Amino acid sequence: xxxxxxxxxxxxxxxxxxxxxxxxxxxxxxxxxxxxxxxxxxxxxxxxxxxxxxxxxxxxxxxxxxxxxxxxxxxxxxxxxxxxxxxxxxxxxxxxxxxxxxxxxxxxxxxxxxxxxxxxx
Length: 121
Known about the structure:
Elements (H helix, E strand, L loop, with lengths): L2 H28 L4 E8 L2 E4 L3 E2 L2 E9 L8 E2 L2 E2 L8 E8 L3 E6 L11 E6 L1
Parallel strand pairs: 1-4, 3-9
Antiparallel strand pairs: 1-2, 4-7, 5-6, 5-8, 8-9
């Protein structure tokens, strides 16, 4: 390889690394994956797979392991009523950090303990 070709190859490697460093954060932001939280429902409590998520879109996977139907309401969005042994998913957007309360809206379930708070960072 001639000296000129070697310099050109080195320059291309350096420029490619610089371009990747500059484009990387922007590319990462565009391809940011949706966070996921599994919510296990029983009588009369919720168990979340995590108590904290980053702001943005969060997909909740609801799994009813109880004997009664339950739903899940957070940030103004409510799931469908989920029968015993059933699973469903729904996605909620959180525009900013904060503490977001969640409840089961079936009469009496929240008062019996089906409530909590999700921290969004």
